[in-house]
Amino acid sequence: MQNIRAPKGTKDVLPSESHKWHYIESVMRETCALYGARELRTPIIEHTELFLRGVGDTTDIVQKEMYTFEDKGGRSITLKPEGTAGMARAFLENNLYSDTQPTKLYYLNSPTFRYEKPQAGRLREHHQFGIETVGAYGPETDAEVITLALSIFERLGVKDLLLHINSIGCPKCRREYNAALREYLKGYLPQMCETCQGRFEKNPMRIIDCKEPGCRQIVKGAPRTIDYLCDDCRAHFEGVKAYLDAAGAEYVIDPDIVRGLDYYTGTVFEVISNRIGAQGAVCAGGRYNGLIEELGGQSIPAVGFGMGMERLLAVMEVNEVKFPVPEGPTVYFAAMGDRPRVKAFELTKKLRDRGVSAEFDHMDRSFKAQFKYANKIGAKYTVALGDEELDRGMVKAKCMADGSEKELPIEALTEYFI
Predict the structure, then answer these.
(1) Cα–Cα distance measured from residue 200 to residue 180, given in angstroms and rounded to the nearest whole number
(2) Could you give all domains of the chain from N- to C-terminal order, each with its CATH number?
(3) Using one digit for the tens of pLDDT, what is the confidence trace for 121-170?
(4) What is the pTM of this model?
């Protein structure tokens, strides 16, 4: 009988790796606190309609990548393919708009599912960290969200990253741009993939984001959104650049960024690493002023980003970032015999109750094997417990760093290690 394996495109996080996740998550939480953002946790499943309306039914995510199923009640349910639509739904459903604005939210280690070909930095189940600032329209908000992302990379020691920014305009200037784009694309229509042919009338800007080589070649000469911005959008984008300049953030204007989700308006951006292959974007986002209104709420501006945890880890590995090494237990009790083992269990429990990390033998090893194991797990001290030590009421605490020993009454051990 063949062993059951994890589904393709998923990956276990083993104990030897989990401390890296803990470190990254702690830096993210600390940075979010500095910026005044608070955590939001949304369900792993949502009604499919949320993504049809929010993400857009012409996007690759909705057309090709969502894990959608019918539940036992006949409802269409989708595993969360991205975090922003669920945030917007929660913002509306829980009346967060009635609070003083802006609302700064983050989600962390959020499982996200997309059915696509697994490759380096891209899994079918991956985990995202994201920031969403709702209720503020000014360009300083866009810049703050971007600088928050850059701050996380800096604090994690990630280098050789490039910030790419663009503006894709509002619905007003998008109409003029779409007309120019259709005029350019209509002569190439027979050469485009079937998906893009379907997008031509309904949402031609999605063609810019197509991954098919033929379509990517066609759009190289297409009109650029940044050349069709209305006065308000142009002023907003100039403001974003001014605030980024004030923050000392280096960036390049990249007219090819349109993002793969329909809810984006105005500013869009990506933070790119050139050291992890084709899937180089480690963070991406932008402004989405129409999403909450599309889901049934008022017209409320918002801006945010998503950051893939697995891809971030890959970038940190190629940057040879040094992760903090998990500490071993403060004390390890090496016990031999029934009475000493019971006493070791008792002392371990007392120390743990006082906030001291402690371990004892679970495997009935020899004394020699227990000391070897204590060294392997990085115990700072070892204490040998046998019948003789119990009868005397005295033990020796050995410092593993220098080999020094201190004899102590057994009943004084708890206070000694605190």
Answers:
(1) 12
(2) 15-170+230-318 (3.30.930.10), 331-417 (3.40.50.800)
(3) 679 999 999 999 999 999 999 999 999 999 999 999 998 899 999 999 99
(4) 0.90
